[in-house]
Amino acid sequence: MINTRLSRLLSISFLALCLGGLSVRAHTPAQEMSDAAQNFLAGLAPGQKDKATFEMKDPEREGWNFVPLARKGLPMKELSPAQRLLAHALLASALSQRGYIQATTIMSLEDILRELEQGRGPVRDPELYYVSIFGRPAAQQTWAWRVEGHHLSLNFVIVDGKEITVTPSFFGTNPGQVRGGARTGLRVISTEEDLGFELVRSLNARQRESAIYSNTAPREVITGNLRQVEALPPKGLSAGDMTSAQVKLVRQILQEYTRRYRPELAEGDLKRMEESGIKKLFFTWAGALEPGQGHYYRVQGPTFLLEFDNTQNDANHIHTVWRDLGRDFGRDLLRLHYQQMPHPESGGGAGAVNSGK
Predict the structure, then answer these.
(1) How far is 347 from 199, CA to CA, in rounded Å?
(2) Tell me, what's the pLDDT at 346?
(3) Which of 78, 91, 236, 247 lies 20 to 30 angstroms, CA to CA, from 254?
(4) How many domains does the chain have?
(5) CA dist., res. 61 & res. 30, Å (int)
(6) Sign, CA torsion 292/295/301/304
(7) Computed over its alpha carbons, how large is the radius of gyration of the chain?
(8) Position 67 in a domain
(9) What pLDDT is stored for residue 344 in this prediction?
(10) Is 15 helix (H, G, I), strand (E, B) or coil?
């Protein structure tokens, strides 16, 4: 049975999802994020706020990771039930309903891991997910925030209350499929995997020669937790050499990764991917063509990179990442912003504290 703590967490998550869904069209995403962040900060004690807040230019903002380790920021474990609701309302302000459910279910898998490992692995705790806010949240301001823990890293930058970036974006699951207990059969990241198999199996012999670069899948997404990434070789099979049905599958993969986020954000990112040129996209595969053995794929375009890897724990441990080659951590937008509106070297502004943590 789900333990009491997890049950409480899921109840809180459901309430936050409902609260977020009620107002999803009432204001702009930037307004709703800033409102949610302000509400979250207002509910914290001074010591908690010190942990949760950083200056905008603090190097910690780009220090992301997806493995189980102690992090900077304020963990949900240190929040009261009321404060945790406000943290989940912030999370819900950025995600679609599907994305929010996917994220909170990933958190819940920590309890399953703890039971499977019986104390042999790292600390597994569905409340060790950390909230960090960079700069001063306000509707027309430039600021950033992150929610991160094992197998989940969500990074947002808001520039002048107009442009919002959501990458690096990491969702992972262990187990990829729950194979025992009350939740047997659960697959949090399923469609992303199924679409990859459907696409690679649809390729003819000539197409496979281009798309499949190795019979062995890499043990990890190739870009790992690099702060900045570039396009990866080999390019694989061009969408220009695919049938219309195969191109449709590629588009569905793009949608699965981007539509984890609220529609206004997802549609903008999908539009940029399309405008970069669908024919310029490449699909690359490594590993087995059947579940149960290690497999990896990526979809790469002129401006972005998606990676999927399922090799660890007997191919039952999934990592997925979406990187934007120019907009990760809002880099291109922030560069233009600072060129047009010079800022003091501190980069913090009112309300930003704890530089250099």
Answers:
(1) 46
(2) 40
(3) 91
(4) 2
(5) 18
(6) positive
(7) 20
(8) yes
(9) 54
(10) helix
In a domain, 348, yes or no: no
CB 296 within 8 A of CB 308: yes
Quick one: which of 124, 71, 69, 88 has its CA closest to 9? Answer: 88
What domain range is 287 assigned to?
Answer: 191-326
Classify each residue of 149-171 as buried b or exposed e, where b means 16 or more C-beta atoms within 10 Å of its C-beta. Answer: bbbbbbbbbbbebebbbbbbbbb
Q: Say if residue 59 is in the same domain as residue 154.
A: yes
Six token digits for residue 79:
């929040």
pLDDT the model gives residue 342: 64
Asked whether residue 155 is domain-assigned, the answer is: yes
- Together in a domain, 8 and 157: yes
**Do 154 and 74 fall within a single domain?**
yes
Tokens, residue 130:
């950390």
**Which residues, in sequence order, are CB contacts of 118 under 8 Å at separation 6+?**
none
Query: Could you tell me which residues come within 8 angstroms of residue 52 by beta carbon, excluding any fewer than 6 positions away?
Result: 40, 41, 44, 73, 74, 131, 132, 133
Q: Are residues 200 and 128 in the same domain?
A: no
**137 forms bridges with which residues in the sheet?**
none
**Tell me, what's the pLDDT at 357?**
40
Residues 229 and 271 occupy one common structural domain: yes
Residues 343 and 335 sit within 8 Å (Cβ to Cβ): no
Same domain, 261 and 126: no
Q: Give the up-direction half-sphere exposure of residue 255: CA atoms within 13 A in the CB hemisphere.
A: 8
Contact predicate 288/218, CB 8 Å = no
Is 180 within the bounds of a domain?
A: no
- How much is the pLDDT for 8? 55
Query: Can you tell me which residue has the tokens 């309890």?
Result: 111
Q: Give the integer Cα–Cα distance in Å for 318 and 312.
A: 8
Residues 12 and 29 reside in one and the same domain: yes
Mean pLDDT for back-to-back runs of 10 residues, the chain (357 residues)? 50 51 66 98 98 97 96 98 98 98 98 92 94 96 98 97 96 97 96 98 98 97 96 92 98 98 97 94 97 97 97 98 97 86 49 36
Up-side HSE of residue 308: CA atoms within 13 Å toward CB? 27
**Pair (152, 215) in one structural domain:** no
